[in-house]
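Model: Ready when you are.
Researcher: Fold this.
Model:
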Amino acid sequence: MTIQAGIIGYGLSGSVFHVPVITSVPDFVITTVVSSKPDKVHRDLPGAKVVSTVDELLADPELRVVIITSPNTTHYPYAKQAIAAGKHVVVEKPFTVTSAEADELIELARQHGVLLTVYHNRRWDNDFLTVRNLLDMRALGKLSLYQAHFNRYRPEVKEDKWREQGLPGSGTLYDLGSHLIDQALFLFGMPARLWADLQAERHGSQVTDYFHLVLIYESFRVILHAGSLVRQTGPKFELHGDLGSFLKYGGDPQEDQLKEGMRPGDTGWGEDQPEQYGQLATEFSGLAVQGEIETLPGRYQAFYQGLAEAILEGGPLPVSAEDARDVIRIIEAAYESAKEGRTVTIT
């Protein structure tokens, strides 16, 4: 049975990160899009109907899934409206602006018997999959330090972009930070405590465009960092344990591949070039070993494959709404820590 899906919003998120991925999964067909740019939609989805309001989209009784890719401030009201209409819902990250909004949506989805998930696609980045595999293998021994960076060089503030405006849910902590936080929580669960340094480091910036988070676990630390004035980047991932270390430079290629018109299933999809392979130094049976580790292929399509299985077969969601809510809880704790200049206990 084909699952009919509709999309709210057709900017970068909808057109680049969702449509090419969801159309690679045969179980879905995109039938309706809410957008003010019908020509752009029809270029990519010639068979889809373009409507101007969310009400028009939700009025379709055959539509089973609503994918929300509009600005962050709309996630909560649009998701609430779609759930009340009896639709399964996918929300682009960040889930909501506040954890209270997330809790309300989780309860509402339970009451209406619909599925609610969040597009934390970077669980399927090729570098993160490789890090996860090394940790599962205990290749580094007992972990001491996990660092993940998402640095960029974007010195100019683009005031016409909503992510750069002083709105709730704007800034890099909600944007890039959601990815890094979700990855860390997926690996390690919630930390005991958190310390955060947040800044608007660019001239004229109205939002947080630099963050440095320290998640404090019982026996190790997680450092998550992003800056907007980093012309030359260091390792994306840096892990150290009592047996060894792993360093990985460069980022997952799937975003650039999608922008270039590639699709899941194409030759080379999600694959690193050999010069991007990570460096592992460790020991096995007392023998020191050092060398390159081939990066596992990235697979953003796994999200929608998992969602199809959840809808059609009752399988688990690819990302639980509770997991996504916990990301927002960490963001809220980070703002509290930075404002008060102290370490915050996570309850």
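Researcher: Now this one.
Model:
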Amino acid sequence: MSQVETSRNNQDNQDRTGTGPDDEVVRLPMPSDGPLDPPAAWERLRARCPVATVELPSGDRATFVSRYDDVRALLSDPRFSRPRAGDDTARLSADGSGGVAADASPEYTLAIPETGEPHLRWRRQVGRYFTAKRMAALRPGMARIAESLLDDMIERGQPADLKAALGFPLPVYVICDLLGAPAEDRDRFSHWSDAFLNVSRFSKEETGAAFTEFARYMSDLVAAKRAAPGDDLLSMLIVESTALPEAERLTDAELLATGMGLLVAGHETTANMIGKMAALLLADRSRWEQLLADPSLVRTAVEEVLRFDANLGGFGMRRYLSEDVDLDGELLPGGTTVFCGMSSANRDDRVFTSPAEMDLTRSPNPHLTFGAGPHSCLGQALARTELQVVLDVLLRKLPTLELAVPVDELRKVEGLLVGGLREVPVRW
């Protein structure tokens, strides 16, 4: 039996397992009262049933882990990764319509290695392009794009949808420039990304067609970079890979998967986060006023928004247990699909003081929004830089910014693995 180490007082070992508080059936995604509110079930699960059996939209059962130490332990364990094709994984979508990120289907397989030395090799080669230093060099360009997009939004007049005007296009321009992909294809990227993350929005046929189109597009892009390398990430990976021993070079299949994965992660999640950041900071005007009074808080405010966001997605990060795991006294057998509730963990009062309060000065802030360990988000420095740039530019150019609708009228993104707001109506 394997051991995942966690540190916790013995009193926390009581009432750790079951289907949920009072044996309720806990279904994912869990409902919340408002578009920015956390599900009430999180607090109950952390207190009384931190290792809970949950039911997915497919009807399959899985395990949901809600406490910080448990979530961090599982995410940090190098043996476990996202489910792969061939794993006997709990399904999100009963009819097989789930996208690549939602259901590990042999039909939609990406060649990125998930575990062991192959994963470390891939991560070393790709990760060196996402260092904080490299991202800092991109900051002035990001700021110019953000300012231009806001100028266009202001010229069109108010009210405006901040997500459509800034939240969506900025990350697309940035990731396309990074990958060397034409930004004019952004509408196609958006559709492909949604299908990649589909849970219930698209049919199986629509998801499959989008994956095929996306893979063909990226295959053609990789071939073009191999024929005529530029100064983008894909070209640099191709050129520098040729100097490595053949066994360590990234294959075309790995390059294709890398491009697809980065394009989705590089714009979909950040676009959603930009909208949510603005909504969270404007929902309570005192937060915005605090930042206007002290713009030096932008960095800690971004980290607090990342911690406080209750709408990362309705499921959490999946892990497939390839062997038995003792999670602080609770045996999780091999073959279990576990959903690590990172947003719930980010509100665990065992780790965070007054976790239900947004403290823009909070430091340190060891939130788990980007995961932990060997599978933590490769692009987190890019995401942080974009969010900091956006907040800095918004405070400078639109100090009178406010939501144009009551908070409870904001509408959540539904049917996808990631969470966000459909629009963020604002005025100034």
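Researcher: Key takeaway?
Model: The two ends are 59 Å apart (CA to CA).
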